[in-house]
Write a structure and sequence with these properties.
Elements: H1 6-27, H2 29-32, E1 38-39, H3 40-47, H4 51-64, E2 67-71, E3 74-77, H5 93-100, H6 102-109, H7 111-117, H8 121-126, H9 129-134, H10 137-161, E4 169-173, H11 179-187, E5 192-197, H12 199-211, E6 218-222, E7 234-238, H13 246-259, E8 265-270, E9 272-273, H14 281-292, E10 298-299, H15 300-309, E11 312-319, E12 325-331
Parallel strand pairs: 4-5, 4-7, 5-6, 7-8, 9-10
Antiparallel strand pairs: 1-3, 2-3, 8-12, 11-12
Helix pairs in contact: 1-4, 1-5, 3-4, 5-10, 6-14, 10-11
Length: 332
């Protein structure tokens, strides 16, 4: 007999499993285990944690396969657990820490009320999520680390799979630390870049871009995309439009359309949802957008309609890693 409660119990149990991963990430357990197995008492001393409580967490981590016991109360990292180290390429530790941050959990806990109202209760109580992060430097640093890790495979695919050969100037709208822009500049030496974001963000990106050798090829332009954007022949908006309602998204896209020439283009890097009920990571992210921002993920048809209302025409959609897609739009 099929247990019809299975999917529900899987989701409920998933909270405890994630809680164990969150403790592992916050305490730095994987970094301490990088050199080899440790007993719980020694590991607790290194993590400044209670040994009994940590032992209970390690038991759960062993059950989900990120550590294994090699002797009673002695654990080592599994291959799957290596990604929880902070010093490895593609580390998942920043992602876990971002999603375990107090405000993030609060937003998801408020999701039922957000669904009832049709808008983010978290935003009503705390203001926009990025303002919330700006007031919490440690949380903002973890978020930036997470976005940088996520940007590596996507940036490599973007630079390799899309033809930037006839782009003169690429504006990375709300580009954060400029990781995606840097990937494009590195692969396409004739392109000039403009990193456009809030003033404190672009100032924080300056050292990173200069260290990569892009100081002379990349202009830093502080500003607000609700007010206007710099003129250029190409614009990249990576994980931007999904943060906003249709009304706000139209304001952003309208400002981009007003600034671009007749032969310009807009590149949206987003998750494009399937039209049916097939599984897609974007459907999970969509609920986070509702909870944290009041934004949403969209289908191809919904993006086409949004772009058309902004005076743009969807030209094509290219698949990228991690469930992402690149949507190219041209002036209508």
């Amino acid at each position: 007999m099929i247990d019809s409660t299975g999917p529900v119990w899987d989701a409920i149990v998933g909270l405890s499993r994630f809680g164990a991963l969150a403790a592992m990430a916050e305490l730095g357990c994987a970094d301490h285990l990088a050199a080899g197995p440790l007993g719980v008492t020694d590991l607790a001393a290194l993590c400044d944690a209670d040994a009994t409580a940590l032992g209970r967490v390690m038991r759960e981590l062993a059950a989900i396969g990120v550590v294994r016991s090699v002797a009673p109360h002695v654990y080592e990292l599994t291959e799957a657990g290596q990604v929880m180290r902070g010093d490895v390429p593609g580390s998942m530790r920043p992602a876990v820490r971002v999603m375990a941050e107090e405000g993030y959990w609060q937003a998801l806990g408020l999701l039922p009320e957000s669904v009832r109202r049709g808008r983010s209760v978290f935003v009503e109580r705390n203001g926009p999520y990025y303002d919330y992060l700006a007031a919490r430097p440690e949380a903002a640093r973890e978020f930036n680390d997470y976005m940088e890790t996520r940007a590596v495979p996507i940036g490599a695919a973007l630079a390799a799979d899309y033809d930037f050969s006839d782009v003169k100037t690429l504006v990375d709208v709300a580009g954060g630390n400029g990781h995606l822009l840097a990937a494009v500049l590195a692969a396409h030496p004739t392109v000039r870049g403009v990193l456009f974001d809030r003033e404190h963000v672009v100032e924080g990106a300056r050292a990173s871009l200069e260290a990569r050798g892009f100081g002379e090829r990349c202009e830093l332009a502080p500003g607000d995309f609700f007010t206007g954007v710099p003129a250029a022949d190409a614009y990249l908006l990576a994980s931007i439009i999904h943060n906003w309602s249709d009304e706000d998204a139209l304001r952003i896209l309208g400002n981009v359309r007003a600034a671009m020439p007749a032969d310009g283009r807009v590149l949206l890097l987003e998750m494009v949802l399937p039209d049916d009920d097939s599984p897609h990571i974007g459907k999970e992210v969509d609920l986070r957008m509702l909870a944290l921002h009041g934004g949403r993920e969209r289908t191809r048809g919904e993006y086409a309609e949004l772009l058309a209302t902004s005076g743009l025409a969807l030209s094509r959609v290219l698949p990228l890693p991690a469930g992402a897609s690149l949507i190219e739009a041209l002036p209508a």
